[in-house]
Write a structure and sequence with these properties.
Layout (H helix, E strand, L loop, with lengths): L4 H13 L6 H8 L5 H4 L9 H25 L3 H28 L9 H12 L2 H29 L3 H25 L1
């Protein structure tokens, strides 16, 4: 399995920082996650098989869509609102693309969150106000960095050409999301 140096650096920096911007709101938002931090900080599994890739991408999209819909209802800042709108729209599109590619390959697409993603949703449900905004943005940044690693790995070592092409087509979108998230967190 090969990872780009840039991806490895992004993940290392995010994991080292704990996605904490040092603000009081960030500390409040992260206090609920302290017990789970080692779990959240684990490097993502990097599937090279088609079903593993589809499962990882699908559960990521499900999380992005559900958390973004929650953010649209609970956010307290225009920046979070704009981010949530974009993420909900674009991850719904990528989910549809993935379902098409998976069906053509005869693969199953999960219809429910995995335990890791459900824990993230539960953590968001517990956050309120500005702490919710900070938790949402921090989670999004970490999850997008993980997704970037997964798609880059699959492009390099995947076993299904159509899914490798899908991964390549999604990479720029995920990188754009990360750039926007980093700008919003500043």
């Amino acid at each position: 399995m090969r990872l780009s140096v840039a991806s490895a650096a992004i993940i290392a920096a995010l994991l080292a920082s704990g996605c904490d911007q040092g603000s009081p709101d960030a500390n409040v938002a992260n206090s609920a996650n302290i017990a789970r931090e080692p779990e959240a900080a684990k490097p993502p599994p990097l599937p090279a098989d088609a079903q593993g890739f589809v499962t990882a991408l699908a559960t990521g999209d499900l999380y992005e869509i559900e958390s973004s819909r929650m953010a649209l209802q609970r956010q307290t800042s225009p920046g979070v609102n704009e981010m949530a709108q974009m993420l909900e729209r674009e991850h719904s599109q990528s989910s549809a693309q993935l379902k098409t590619a998976a069906a053509q390959a005869g693969l199953k697409v999960p219809a429910a969150l995995n335990p890791e993603k459900q824990t993230l949703i539960d953590d968001l449900k517990a956050a309120q106000g500005a702490a919710f905004d900070q938790a949402f943005l921090n989670q999004q940044r970490l999850q997008h960095a993980k997704t970037l690693m997964i798609i880059q790995n699959y492009q390099a070592a995947g076993d299904n050409e159509a899914l490798k092409q899908l991964a390549a087509s999604l990479q720029k979108k995920i990188e754009f999301h990360l750039d926007r998230l980093n700008a919003t967190l500043k």
